[in-house]
Design brief:
This protein is an all-alpha fold. It contains six helices and no strands. The chain is elongated.
Length: 183
């Protein structure tokens, strides 16, 4: 009977499994060190700060919509001023720092009544009623977005977002209601 090699076990040994796991863990650690700096920075910025910065950016865009609407329809400026001031106050309250708070005073660009481009790139509707409806839609959309964000927000920020979202819903109502009308 000729000599044959002993058969290999059908499964890997414990030693080879441990060596493989150690090698994979080491490779994972080395790969983790090569993440780009943008990813590292995003991971180190606290969730609350990122949420606040996004909320401020959204409020700033809404402020720009108020400004372009007032510039396109100067007759609406007085009606929009208190709502715009409230949005500026929201941006200031949501700001993670005090240095990047938007100004509560609206910009004066000397509107001509023609359709001006809104901050989103959409033109302001030419009719005042339609412009108010578009602004109300923007308020409503942002209010809904902030309501959705409540689920992942830390407690203090969630309370603030809830308040700002409720205020946005009231703004949407005020923008589409008929001031001075009697029932």
């Amino acid at each position: 009977m000729p000599w044959t090699l002993p058969s290999r076990p059908s499964r890997p040994s414990r030693r080879s499994l441990l060596a493989g796991a150690a090698g994979a863990a080491g490779a994972g650690l080395l790969t983790g060190c090569s993440l780009d700096r943008a990813t590292d920075a995003a991971l180190t910025i606290p969730l609350e700060r990122r949420m606040r910065e996004t909320a401020v950016r959204d409020s700033t865009r809404l402020l720009e919509r108020y400004d372009t609407t007032a510039a396109a329809h100067p007759a609406l400026a007085a009606r929009l001023a208190p709502l715009r001031a409230a949005v500026a106050a929201h941006a200031a309250a949501l700001s993670p720092t005090t240095s990047d708070r938007p100004s509560p005073a609206p910009s004066r660009s000397g509107g001509t009544g023609a359709a001006a481009p809104a901050a989103s790139g959409e033109p302001v509707p030419p009719k005042p009623e339609e412009a108010l409806t578009a602004l109300a839609d923007a308020e409503r959309s942002l209010s809904e977005s902030r309501t959705i964000d409540l689920a992942g927000a830390p407690a203090e920020l969630a309370r603030l977002l809830a308040s700002v979202a409720a205020c946005g819903a009231v703004h949407a109502y005020l923008l589409t209601s008929n001031p001075g009308a009697t029932s």
